[in-house]
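Thread: Newbie trying to understand structure tokens

Hi all, I'm a second-year student working on a class project, and my supervisor (Dr. K.) asked me to get a predicted structure for one chain before our next meeting. I've only ever worked with sequences, so writing a 3D structure as a token string is new to me. If someone could post the tokens and maybe explain what I'm looking at, I'd be very grateful. Here's the chain:
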Amino acid sequence: MKTVNGTLMCDFLDPVEIEKLRSGWTPRRGDVVVASGFTIRGLQRLLVSLVEGREEPYAEGLLDKPHLLEAAASRQGAEKYADFLAGWPGRRLFKTHELPHEVPFRWPPTEEEVQEGVAPKVAVLVSDPRYALSVTWEAMNAMNIDLPLPHGGRDFAEFIELVVRREKFTTFHKDPFSHPVAWAREAMKWPGQVRLFDVDRFASLNPREVAAACEEFADFIGVPEPASAAARLVAAIGNRPRSASLALAKDGIVDHDAILGGPLVELLGPRVQAFEAEAATLSYGTRSEYRRLLGLLKDVPMLAELAQRAIDGVKTVPPPMLCAPLKGLAAHAAGTCRVCVFALRGACHYTAEMCAFCHLEGHKKPSRPSHAKRVRHRDRLRARCRTPSLDGLSS
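---
Reply by user tm_fold:
Sure, no problem. This is what the structure looks like when written as tokens:
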């Protein structure tokens, strides 16, 4: 870590080169910029596939191109990176973790650029702040980034205190409070160019919810037949090839769950659980400031629902059964998957890829309840649904 103008910054980031890119490079027609204050492991493969028209999210080399603008400009130098971008064919996806006034390209667009369709589309990823803080913490540990904390940057609660107290701190991430608020304001000014997307939908255990989120993203960036493109991509996620783990292991930041056969996008539940486990140890001052920041998020209509989840605290922690994959090779092999009882009867309305439950072979078909149990169950349902008659009238 190093200090630049009183702010902590990762050693590999070069503010001089980032500023050169900001003043000397402009995205071209069809470019998509994903703005996020936290890492998007796994999800980046989905979004790159949609932008580039790829139908294999586990393809080796899918993320080899330098998508993160700040990091690429710092490592290669702004001029060299700009030269590389000039020869990058087809539609391009870029990432930035910066606030709108600090993005490493010219922003905002002019009215003329918007009318001519030249201005880039900016897809802003937002999430429950508890999830955002947790995945950021995981990423920083995966990269062995030490923070100026008493335990060398290895205590989650101390990290939460550092971010919530708004200390002079940044890596290539931004805090989950000011970043989404700033971009929500941009979405209000430029509704055709900027849109917020809830990451939790992409991380859903229900493939149909993931497909709906992908369809919305594809429609926003102008993908032809967005529903079909999203359905094919989600089906491809379900048909995980044997080479998937090798391809994932070569990504910049490793998603261990996905490598071991888990879901491609990190699940919300375990991250929210991890945050709430640490929340009880936070100081009174930090908890008060945290509630104040959530109140600021709630004041923004686009972010009110996300903020309310965090305000409700432990009440919104998913049950244990929803904090682990319901299906997948790893879950099936470990015996922790949940079988689709309709598939066992040959009556599931969805394909194996689009069903939220396990369709793999090896599950024992449940026995049918006895006639007496079925009769008792039927009678209970009838009693529950019977409408009581009004006084003086027969039913």
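A couple of things are worth pointing out once you decode it. Residues 17 and 78 are 5 Å apart (CA to CA). DSSP finds 19 helices and six strands in the chain. Feel free to ask follow-ups in this thread.
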